[in-house]
């Protein structure tokens, strides 16, 4: 192994992956944009799931090009489970298998000024305004930011912080956040509540890097709500995509780890990799059961279904019984998920530690303690979607929402009662 200055360097951009091929192409364009910033260094990218190339493929490509020092960055807006656990796990496993290879792992994109500027530019563009010559204020307009929503409280809080920063920078009459994921309020019911403030112009801005099923679902919610409020102007901002400021942020995150002297940290805080390694040593994560990456060779071998197995045990005085209920939800992706959890009449603990993605590993989602919030994911039950967190719902929530699902009558459901 040569010294640090002589070792051949390479850059690895680690994405989540999507069932949507348009999202894959958009991620590829971001990688191409980054290559222009580093013309003399190999740049590869890969995904955790759904998409090829997977991260191992990208890393192997760098090795094939003679790279001895890899600078890996998460293509993630916030540090939730994927950036904190799944990607470091893949990188750690790869490093262990390739002696002499040095792998450095950078920070999520976060609330860097470049990301905030990119988001604001998308919002201005949706309003037909020049981001370089913006108005003093937008007091007659309400901004609704749509965050991804995760089981990670701090990631959700970062999206809320972003909303406040953008609101003050741009001067909206009101701004708030809704989420498309596991937390609350969900997009549809959140929008309905915010419309009670009376604004006649509403910008809905998804803080997402790329398109995909969630983006299309978000825009679908907006269209649905707009039909019910014909006197309100709804404006759908574009997601971030390959905005030049987004490429700036990726470049900054790479240079933060590239320019470090040995032992130096990009910030004074614990890095994502240090956090992962500390928790790994403490037995809090298992590197050998990390997120199973997408296997393109297995594409077509699976049934493209989500399969949920719920086991429930009930005790009623002098008798008890148990039953299993299976739900098969047709889906357009390449592998099955299995969920199993148990309930009894006193406790609703969940053994659902995550999804089983085939035989190669486990994709862990944190259990969200407010899964039953009346404005949260339960508002999406029965909408022919299968969310990664469906296995977290206690049976009583499924039972409470069953009437709405059966009758297709939202006002009947607990989650929709005003």
Secondary structure elements and pairings:
Blueprint: E1 9-15, H1 21-37, E2 43-47, H2 55-64, E3 69-74, H3 81-97, E4 102-105, H4 113-126, E5 138-147, H5 153-170, E6 172-179, H6 187-194, E7 201-206, H7 213-228, E8 233-236, H8 244-258, H9 272-281, E9 305-316, E10 319-330, E11 338-339, E12 355-356, E13 362-363, H10 395-407
Parallel strand pairs: 1-2, 1-3, 3-4, 5-6, 5-7, 7-8, 9-11
Antiparallel strand pairs: 9-10, 12-13
Task: Give a description of the structure.
It is built from ten helices and 13 strands. Helices cover 33% and strands 19% of the residues. Strand 3 (69-74), helix 3 (81-97) and strand 4 (102-105) form a beta-alpha-beta unit. The chain has helices at residues 21-37, 55-64, 81-97, 113-126, 153-170, 187-194, 213-228, 244-258, 272-281, 395-407, and strands at 9-15, 43-47, 69-74, 102-105, 138-147, 172-179, 201-206, 233-236, 305-316, 319-330, 338-339, 355-356, 362-363. The termini are far apart. The protein is α/β, with parallel strands linked by helices and 418 residues long. The strands form four sheets. A four-stranded parallel beta sheet has the order 2-1-3-4, with helices on both faces. A four-stranded parallel beta sheet has the order 6-5-7-8, with helices on both faces.
